[in-house]
C-alpha cells in the first residue's frame, strides 16, 4: 500500500514538473482607447500549429493578465471584451516578458450583438450572469455534463451530482432556459451528454418571476445549459446495455428533444450493479419546488418525514442493489403567453443490507453487539404539472400540482447479544404514504414603483406505517402486558393525516434604485389527526388489541400562524443591508382522551442580512435570524408507540415551541486572473427551550419522552476550502469542523453530549498530453463523542487515486483506488480495507458505438467501517458491501 501511494505521489509530482518546465509567462494589460483598465476581458493564446487554445486568462481589476506558454512557438494572441473590437496579433517569445504587454481595445462602432460576442469569448460576465464557452475548457473526451463542469474554473462536482460554483451550491439546473426535472443537479449532471453542451451560464440571485426583477431577494444559484445549435429540433442521447457473470445486468437510456416550443427529456435505467440513477433518498428529497411561505419570516412547523428509518442505499453500505427508473419531463410553450411543464418519475428498488455493530449506551455499563440483515423494497412515483401565464412583463400567474406515492416494505432479521442474553429479532415495516401539493401564485407590477403578489398552497399527506415485531425475549416486560409465549409478536398500527394550507400577500414599494420596502401578511393553518394502537399476535395467527389507553392514540391537532412582516433592503455602494421584523401570533391545540389542550403565543422575530461585494466574485456575507420552531402531532400524542425492538416513544402534551439564534458568516473569493478559489464560513446556533428527550434506559431498552430542555443546545461549525487551477493541473485543500453540545435526561440524570467532528482533505489533479489524467485525494477525519459517563474517539485515513489513460486509437483505461485505515481509539481497534474499480473502453473515432469491460470491487472487500452517535448511543458499524463483479456493456449514441 505504501509503495502504491508513494508511486502515485511521485508520478503526480513528476507530471506537475513536466507541465511546468519550459513554460514562460506572458504578462500584459488590457485597456481601452482612453487608457482605462478593462476588467473581465478575455485573453488567450492559440497555438498556430495545432489551432487549439494553449493558455487562457481573464483580466483583473487592474486590467492585468497572465498566460503561460512554451518558448519559441508561434501563437495567435487574442483579446476580446463586449462592445469592443477584438484584438489579434501573432507572437513568439523566447523568455518571460518583464514589461507588460499592452493591448488596447477600441470601441466597436458597429455594436455587435451579444450573441455574436459570446461565441468569441470563453468567459462573458454580464451583471449576475457568467457565461462559459464549454469547448474553450474541455478536452473533447468528456462523457457527461458533470465532466464538462469539472473542467470549468471555479466549479466542483461531488459524487452525488451536487454542484458548487465558487463555493456556493447550485440549487437549480436549466437546459435552454427550461427546468430539467425540477432543476435537479443529479439527474442533469449524470445524464446529459457532454457533446451537446455549448455554453454554461451561472445565474446568480436567480429569480424566475419577471415582475419581481426589481425587488429580487433571492440568493439562489442556478445553471443554464445552452445546447449546441445542431442539437436543436432533433433527438439526441445514448442507449447502454450490458451483462456479466452471476446474472449481472445494466440497461440505461437517455433521450432528449429540444425545440423552441417543446422540450422532452426521457431517462430510463435498470441494473443490479449498484449504479443508483434514483434512490429512496432522492424520492424523499424531491419537493416539487414547493417551500413553506412562512419560512422566510422566521417560523417553521416540522412535519415528521415518512421514511420511518428506512436504510438509504449507497454503494458503500449495501450488499445488493437492484434499481429501476423511468423518468419523463416536458416543457411546452403553445404561445408566447403560456408555458406548460411537468415530470413523472417512477422507480422500483430492491436492496439488501447487512451489518454488525458494537453499541454503547450512554450512562449504561456493558456493550451490545447487534448483527443485522435487512431488505428494502419500494415502488414509488412522483408527478408534477405546472402552468404559467405571462400576458405581459408586468403580470405573471402560475399554478402547479405535485404528487408523491409509494409502497414501501422494510424487513429485518437481527441478533442482539447483551450481557450474555441473546435476542432473535424479526421485524417488518410496510407503508403506503402519499401526498398532494398544490400552489397558486400571482405577481403584478402596475408601475415601476409598486409590485403586489399573492401565493397560496395546500398540502394533503397521509402515512400509515404498520410495524410488525417478533422477538424471542419478552419486549418491555415491565410495560407491555403481553400474554403469549416466546416468540412474542407485537403489531404497531399507526395512521397520520395532515392537511396544511398557507397564504401570503406581499407588497413591494420601490423607493429608488437602491432601496425598497416589502410588507407581507400571511397565514399557516395545519390540521392533523393520528390514530394508533398496539396488538399482540399469537402463534395461531389471531390478534388481540392491547386494551390500554397507554398504548392508544386518537388525537386531533391544529397549528395556526398569523404573521405580519416588514423588510427593508438598501444598497450603499458595494454594501447591501436587509433588516426585517416579523410579528407572529400562534395558536396550538390538541384533543386526546376527551381533553383539549393548547396555547397561544405572540413572538417578534427579527432577522438581519448584510453583504459586502468587493467584486462580483468576491463577497463577505453576514446573516442573523431569530427563529421559532414548532413540532407536529406525533410529539404530542401521549399514547406509547413501539418504534423498535428496544425503543418506545411517548408524546408530551405540554410541549411548547423551541426558538433559536442562528448566525452565519460566509466568505467567497474567486479570482479569474489566477483561477484561485477561496471560500469558507462559520455558523453558530443557540437553541433555547429546545425539544429534547427524557430517556429511560433499562439494559438496551429505551423509552423516549420529548420535553423542552432548560439548558441551551449549541452548535458551532465551520468550513474552509482553497483550490487553484494551473494550465494543466489543479490543487485543493479544505476542511470542515463541527462542535455541538446537546442536553437531555437519561435515567433521571441530566446528561450533556459533546460532539466534535473534523474532516480535512487534500486533492491534486493533472492531465498529461491530453491522454493521461491523474487525480489524487487524501481525506482525514476525527470524531470525538462524549456523554456524562461515556466517550469514544474515531479516526479514518482515506487516500484515494483516480487514473484515466487513452492509448492506441480509441482505447481508454480508467481505474479508481481507495484505501481506508479506520481506528477506534475507545477500544484500541484498527481496521483497514481498500476498494479498487477498473474499466476498459473502446470507441473508434467518429463512431457512435462504445464497448466497455468493467470490474467493481476487484479486491472483493466484504465490509467497511463507520461510526455514529445519537443522544443516547455510540455505535461502530461494519457494513457489508456489494461483492466483486464484472460487466461487459455496449453504448450507442443517438
From TrEMBL:
Keyword S-adenosyl-L-methionine appears in the UniProt entry: no
Signal sequence, renumbered to the chain: 1-20
Record domain Outer membrane protein beta-barrel: where: 483-892
Keyword Transferase belongs to the record: no
Assigned keywords, A-Z: Signal
InterPro entries found in the cross-reference section: CarboxyPept-like_regulatory (IPR008969), OMP_b-brl_3 (IPR041700)
Top-rank taxon, per record: Bacteria
Name of the protein in its database record: Outer membrane protein beta-barrel family protein
Upper lineage: Bacteria, Pseudomonadati, Bacteroidota, Cytophagia, Cytophagales
